[in-house]
Amino acid sequence: MPEPEIRFIHTGEMPKPKTAPHLVCGFPGSGFVGKLAVDHLIEELKATRLVDIYSSSFPPQVLIGADGTAELMKNSIFWWEGDNASLLLLTGDTQPQNPDSEYALASQILDFAGNLGMKQVFTLAAYITGVFVEKPRVFGTATDTETVAGFANNNVSAMDSGSITGMNGLVIGIAKMRGLKGTCLLGETSGYVVDAKASKAVLEVLLKLINLKVDMANLDKRAKDTEMLIQTIEQQMSGRARPASEGQQRPQNTGYIS
Q: Which residues pair with 53 in a beta bridge?
């Protein structure tokens, strides 16, 4: 199989960071948990677009914008720097369609961030349970035991088995091979809906870990929309589902998905 073509198209001037930046990735996946969280950061921080990333391994289609124009699917990296922190924020329309392409893209993203002095990478993902929950939990894994040990202080449940598929797993795995710290935070979600509640839970933990404050009002609104959607679905299902008094058993062996 030929190597995928990957192009980084620069859309802004390369910054000169005053502090080593964190790379925060929100690839699209189940519930759009990570993507919604990173998109919220980009919007609230008014981050600057640095590069658009195109790959022959992305799905062969174009997306139609609100203005009627068509564009190839892409990933993008944005830049923000504050007084005490700096961030590289990756969002995207899609993930690569095969393993070789995922490895290639993950490596090039880390190359790009490494050239700007990145010290740590976070990926935000979904922890699929198959059931609706009132208050999503946050699960996590990291490439070093010190970070894992600190999860309990931030109300994160450390994962001790399973796997994380796709870019959210690969990025932190390759980061570890390069001697960098990597953390994946996963928001508990049913996997059935775009879940802003899970996104908010994950983002709140991330902000604590990097000691940053961001206005959450817009994400709060989307989380309420998610809650209303879930209530509607549950009401529609109640007529043909078993009585609520029997309860829904939480699966013991859940999957982890990026």
A: 8, 75
Dihedral sign from CA coordinates of 66, 72, 73, 74: negative
Residue whose token pair is 């029997």: 246
DSSP secondary structure code for residue 64 in this structure: E
> φ and ψ at 221, to 5 degrees?
-65, -45
Cα distances (Å, whole numbers) of residue 43 to 19, 39, 79, 89, 155:
21, 6, 12, 11, 26
Per the CB < 8 A criterion, the answer to whether 182 and 163 are in contact is no
Instruction: Please give the Cα distance from 232 to 197 (Å, whole number).
Output: 16
pLDDT tens digit at each of 258 positions of the chain:
567 899 999 998 999 999 999 999 999 988 899 999 999 999 999 999 999 999 999 999 999 999 999 999 999 999 999 988 999 999 999 999 999 999 999 999 999 999 999 989 999 999 999 888 889 999 999 999 999 999 999 999 999 999 999 999 999 999 999 999 999 999 999 888 888 999 999 999 999 999 999 999 998 888 787 777 777 776 777 765 554 434 444 444 444 444
* Contact predicate 140/158, CB 8 Å: yes
Bridge partners (DSSP) listed for residue 71:
63
**DSSP line for 171-226:** HHHHHHHTT-EEEEEEEEE-SSS--HHHHHHHHHHHHHHTT-----HHHHHHHHHH
Q: Which of 178, 67, 10, 203 is nearest to 122 (CA)?
A: 203
Question: 196-209 vs 33-45: helix axis angle to the nearest 10?
Answer: 60
Euclidean distance between CA atoms 175 and 188, whole angstroms = 24
